[in-house]
Design a protein that fits this description.
Layout lengths: L1 H22 L4 H25 L4 H40 L1
């Protein structure tokens, strides 16, 4: 039960960052990290289920997601938000001159 709670919390935490990316039309670059996530998590889930048991399968999704997807979403959304902030600050400065 804890594994699913961690997974759901992680998804709820990162969801708004993906909203920023989608709002900025940064969709294509999201495909690559998710392909890497799938390439890592699918064999890891199979191995976890085969060698450890079904209880380890959620961890086989949580760990790669936290290692691959979360850093990508945080980095990209911070970049977009800082670019937007700089752009709006420059626009306001230009209006006051």
């Amino acid at each position: 039960m804890t594994r699913m709670a961690v997974w759901t919390t992680l998804l709820c935490f990162i969801g708004p960052y993906f909203m920023v990316l989608n709002g900025a039309n940064v969709v294509r670059s999201q495909v690559y990290p998710f392909c890497a996530f799938a390439a890592v998590s699918i064999p890891l889930k199979y191995a976890a289920a085969s060698y450890i048991g079904a209880w380890a399968v959620p961890w086989a999704a949580v760990i790669p997601y936290a290692a691959i997807i979360v850093p990508f979403a945080l980095r990209q959304s911070r970049k977009i938000l800082s670019d937007e902030w700089r752009g709006s600050a420059q626009a306001q400065a230009a209006r006051h001159v």
